[in-house]
Amino acid sequence: MSLDEIFALAYRVLSGAGLSRAHAEAVAHTIMVSERDACASHGLHRLPGCVMTIRSGKLSLDAEPKVEDVTPSLVRVDAGYGYSRLAFDRGTPSLVEKARRCGIAAMAINDCFHFSALWPEVEALTDLGLAALAMTPSHAWVAPAGGTRGLLGTNPIAFGWPRSGRHPYVFDFATSAMARSELARRKSEGTPIVEGIGLGPDGTPTTDASAALDGAMLTFGGHKGSALSTMIELMAGPLIGDRTSLASMEFDEDLKLAPCHGELVMAFDPAVMAGGRVDQGTAWAEALFSGFAEQGARLPSERRYAARARTIAEGVSVPRPLHERLLALES
Amino acid sequence: MSLDEIFALAYRVLSGAGLSRAHAEAVAHTIMVSERDACASHGLHRLPGCVMTIRSGKLSLDAEPKVEDVTPSLVRVDAGYGYSRLAFDRGTPSLVEKARRCGIAAMAINDCFHFSALWPEVEALTDLGLAALAMTPSHAWVAPAGGTRGLLGTNPIAFGWPRSGRHPYVFDFATSAMARSELARRKSEGTPIVEGIGLGPDGTPTTDASAALDGAMLTFGGHKGSALSTMIELMAGPLIGDRTSLASMEFDEDLKLAPCHGELVMAFDPAVMAGGRVDQGTAWAEALFSGFAEQGARLPSERRYAARARTIAEGVSVPRPLHERLLALES
Question: Does A73 touch chain B (CB under 8 A)?
Fold first, then answer.
């Protein structure tokens, strides 16, 4: 399927389920760019879950995000219990203007259902010459270091750095040791996981994906990853007056919908923050990136950019069973 | 030794080596609070290294930090090639005022020699009711994921969250898999390291601490830790017009002094960023912390606070050989 066809299919499924035009376009765009960049975790196979969330009655199908200019460096977007991506799009012009004026600025998105990879948001800012840092909680599936049961979310964090004439440096990773979707895949295939990924319902280490889904996931990187995940809970939650992963899960009332919480996006303008030394800073940054290449280490976004070049030219292979399932959802 | 005696000893060594009164007091304070909180990595045993840096001729012994009010949410402190902590102290009032007015604000410290744990700085901000995030590069001792030699620094990151009537939530960790000082200790004791800590000079995994010191360290958490470390390079380096760890090492000219680069400190006022929901946010944050305690998981700062209660009452045991070495440095 071409990328246009993927967008159109996603849009039809979402709007057919009842989502307003603006929200359906925003979510379909995320799905399209995820397929484009070979990030299946946010691609077409997430549509059935979106439809479940759309039909739950908890998600606002047509909330128009309210943008509030709070301070010279803070914009707040009340998503009104709609999907997050439209809120991001509506608040971005103000965030960009504030970052360019102040050097550092933040966008606090409140009360959004989260279905949006963070890297497309970060890239929207690097495309404008800004550095960006975005984070969200999720649901309380992940045990803290030394713990036995879910408390933290899978808590993604994404960062982007603009590079003149090149793809930006971008990473976007979950702070859980494994993506929850990958854990679900292991369960359905019956393949084991290594130790360090999850705990069983009794709070002890397990190599059984199913037991880890019923028990708790673990963070990457031991106590350091656990601390970073806790920071994301606090910064993208209580700091902006919004839910932790624990509070999001309570709000969910065991309906297993998309998490509902906030999102924190920070934008930084090197031209302001580096003062008179922006060219020197850029040279130091590029020397760092050259250092990766010289020793054969890949930058985290290279795989996505290679996929992008390929899929724009050749389109995307969509498994037939998934395609048929989505066509059925349309009707 | 009492904490007062530790401060006095550190101050005499530093000022005796030629450091100005203001800088000697600032560095001695860091050494005292590190001993107080049982963080030996920034305690008395670092004084000989400080003296080497002081006598190198590269460090300014008496630079008065220049504070520049750049934008409503950005303050810059030119440390003038002095130690970093005095620059932090001089810029903090402006950072605090900006965070309280704007919700989010940043302090960019430029051209500082770094000897300062980050958690005392973060705590200085949580004491005022602000959340804080601080980071710095170091020297290019750490290989990126998939790489073979040093490129990234040990790149510490520290975060603090204020809690009413309680110690703040604070973490401060190196993004290397092991602290470099611990690696040096292993070398001197001849004890091995597990795989995943370092690479030998040939770029292959090693369990020999000495080989890892001559080769490269690795980050914690695989490619995610490597990405986080790269973010710290970019945000606390080129973003603020300052050196990466690679550039810091070049500046060092193999003298093995303290790294010379920048530092980025961000401060956040929940009262502004949470808007009308600051009380609700606080309740969600405290429920998260309760969740740690209920499952027997420790918060990252608990060990330090326990040490603090003990050393304030009982003082600190200083090994006699170290004490004698420091007394010799005094004269």
Answer: yes
Per-residue pLDDT for A40 more than 90? Answer: no
- Residue A45 sits in which domain range? 1-55+302-331
DSSP string, B4-63: HHHHHHHHHHHHHHT--HHHHHHHHHHHHHHHHTT-GGGSGGGHHHHHHHHTTSSS-SS-
Statement to judge: residues B122 and B135 lie in one domain: yes
As given in the structure block, the two tokens for residue B257 are 């002094």
Beta strand B131-135 with B74-78 is unpaired
* Complex-level ipTM: 0.97
pLDDT for residue B219: 98
- Average pLDDT in chain B: 96
Size of interface A-B (CB pairs under 8 A): 269
Same domain, B151 and B228: yes
Q: Which two tokens stand for residue B8?
A: 């006095």
Tell me whether B143 touches chain A (CB under 8 Å): yes
All residues of chain A having their beta carbon less than 8 Å from the beta carbon of residue B159 are 227, 231, 234
**A273, A282, A294: which to substitute to probe chain B, counting the most B Cβ within 10 Å?**
A273
Nearest chain A residue to B75 by CA: give it. Answer: A273
**Is B165 a member of any domain?**
yes
B94 and B73 assigned to the same domain: yes
B103 shares its domain with B167: yes
Query: Quick one: pLDDT band at residue B243, thresholds 50, 70, 90?
Result: very high
The mean predicted confidence, pLDDT, of chain A is 96
* In the block, residue with structure tokens 């302090």: B107
Give helix A84-102 / helix A21-36 axis angle, nearest 10°: 80
Q: How far apart (Å, rounded) are the C-alpha atoms in residues A111 and A117?
A: 17
Rounded distance, CA B136 to CA B157, Å? 7
pLDDT tens digit sequence for B190-229: 999 999 999 999 999 999 999 999 999 999 999 999 999 9
Separation of alpha carbons A273 and B328, rounded Å = 44
From the list B319, B296, B293, B302, the residue with the least C-alpha distance to B37 is B302
pLDDT at position A331 over 80: no
Q: Are residues B279 and B234 in the same domain?
A: yes
Per DSSP bridges, beta strands B142-143 and B216-218 are parallel
Specify whether the CB–CB gap between A126 and A162 falls below 8 A: yes
Q: Is pLDDT above 90 for A298? A: yes
Report the domain count for chain B. Answer: 2
**Cα distances (Å, whole numbers) of residue A255 to A84, A170, A200, B32, B250:** 19, 33, 22, 52, 56
User: Does one domain contain both B159 and B249?
Assistant: yes
- In which band, very low, low, confident or very high, does the pLDDT at B24 lie, cut at 50, 70 and 90? very high
Q: What is the pLDDT of residues A107-146, one digit of tens each?
A: 999 999 998 789 999 999 999 999 999 999 999 999 999 9
